[in-house]
Amino acid sequence: MLNYKIDTYLNIILFISLFSLISAFFIEFILGHQPCNLCLIQRIPYGLSIILIILNFFIRKSTQFIILLLILIFSLSFIISFYHFGIEQGFFEESMVCGLKNSSNIISKEEILNQLQYKTVNCKDVTFRIFGFSLTTINIILSLALTMMLLKIYKNYEKFKK
Predict the structure, then answer these.
(1) Please, what sign has the CA dihedral across residues 126, 75, 24, 98?
(2) Which residues make Cβ contacts (< 8 Å) with residue 126, sequence separation at least 6?
(3) Which strand (E) or helix (H) includes residue 129?
(4) What sign for the dihedral angle of Cα 118, 122, 125, 127?
(5) How do the domains of the chain map onto residue ranges?
(6) What is the pLDDT of residues 66-114, one digit of tens each?
(7) Of the candidates 40, 15, 13, which has an alpha carbon nearest to the alpha carbon of residue 25?
(8) From 28's CA, which of 4, 20, 47, 103 has a CA 20 to 30 Å away?
(9) Of 155, 143, 8, 3, nearest to 68 (Cα)?
(10) Spatial contact of 145 and 74, defined as CB atoms under 8 Å apart
C-alpha cells in the first residue's frame, strides 16, 4: 500500500462510496433493475461513509475515531454482503428482510392484497451482473478491500499522518 497522507486515502474512499451509490441508483432508475431489500441495505454503509468523511473534513481532531467507525461500517458491509451472497448461492435461507416491502403501513386485508400485486425482487435473484459477477459479489470484494485499507491506516496512523 502506498504511503499517502490520510486525507488522500479518505478522498479515495469518498470517491469509491460516491461512485458506488451513483452506480446503484443508475442501475436502478436508469437501467430499470429493481433491487431487493438486502441490496438497499447494502447501500447504507456507503452513505454513512460519505457523511463521516465529509464530517471529518470539518472536524479534524477526530480523524482516528472516524477511521475506526469506517472500519466498523465496512466490516458490517462485508458481513451483510456475505450473507446476501450466501442467499444468492443457496447457502442460507432468506430472512424476513428479503420479503417485506413496507409492512408498517399494512392495516387491512385490502392493503395486504394490494401489496401482493406488486412484484418484489427476491434476494436470491440476481438481476444485474458486471463481468459475470453480481453486485453483491463486487460489494464483498470492495467492502473487504476498504476494511483492510482502513485497518492498515489505523494501525499505522502516526506514519500516515505526517
Answers:
(1) positive
(2) 88, 134, 136
(3) strand 129-130
(4) positive
(5) 6-94+123-161
(6) 999 999 999 999 999 999 999 988 888 887 777 655 555 556 667 666 6
(7) 40
(8) 103
(9) 155
(10) no
Instruction: Give 133's DSSP letter.
Output: E
> 38 — phi, psi (to 5°)?
-65, -35
CA distance 114 to 75: 38
Cell of 102: 413496507
Per residue in 35-52, pLDDT (tens digit) is 888 999 999 999 999 999
pTM of the model: 0.83
Helix, strand, coil in percent for the chain, rounding step 5: 70, 0, 25
